[in-house]
Amino acid sequence: MTQIVVRALAAQLLLWPAAPVLAQTSPPEGASFASGVAALHTYAPTGNPGSTDFDVTDRAAITNLISAYSFAYDNFEAAAWLSLFTADAEFVAGEPGEPALSFTGDGFRSFWTKRMNAFRSSGEQRRHLMANILFLDQTADTAHVSVVGLLASTADAHTFSAVSSLNYEGWLVKGPDGWKIKRWHDFPDAAFSQ
């Protein structure tokens, strides 16, 4: 009997670290696994980050676009949030220790609309505090940015908590109606309950 208990315990301990991987056998509806995609953790500028060789109007528009991303998401305005993306945008999201997920097309729109509706009815208020926008590259009609921030939450209008630091990377394009997000990577620094 003792051997059976020891073997059962050993099996549980061996499988425990793999449990999240085993549990994630298929992506949620509207997503696919994004292999080879990871959070940005390096920075090697090819030029002076303090260079003044850029269009100030474009920089202000991009900064406002990123602020609108936070404001629309935090206020559960799915249509407004989704309008910040191009029609063919890709949104990649991942947490430490989990495979990254890619969302595109109708799956992207449906998944994030449902997610915002769930937050709206949960009573939890999240705030994306975008503190650090770094322009990695910019041309007249494209931009590559890194955005670091903090995700905060208030439950029941009383309990405040920091959820995670944020690590975003975005590729933006300028079209006839201004700047939009073409690709966005969302990799918080800590895993947390959704």
TrEMBL record:
Does Acetylation show up as a keyword for this record? Answer: no
SnoaL-like domain location is 56-185
Keyword Ion transport assigned: no
> Which Pfam families does UniProt cross-reference here?
SnoaL_4 (PF13577)
**Alphabetical list of InterPro entries matching this protein:** NTF2-like_dom_sf, SnoaL-like
UniProt keyword annotations, A-Z: Signal
Span of the secretion signal? 1-23
> Can you name this protein?
Nuclear transport factor 2 family protein
The source organism is: Acuticoccus mangrovi
- Which taxonomic lineage does the organism of this UniProt entry have? Bacteria, Pseudomonadati, Pseudomonadota, Alphaproteobacteria, Hyphomicrobiales
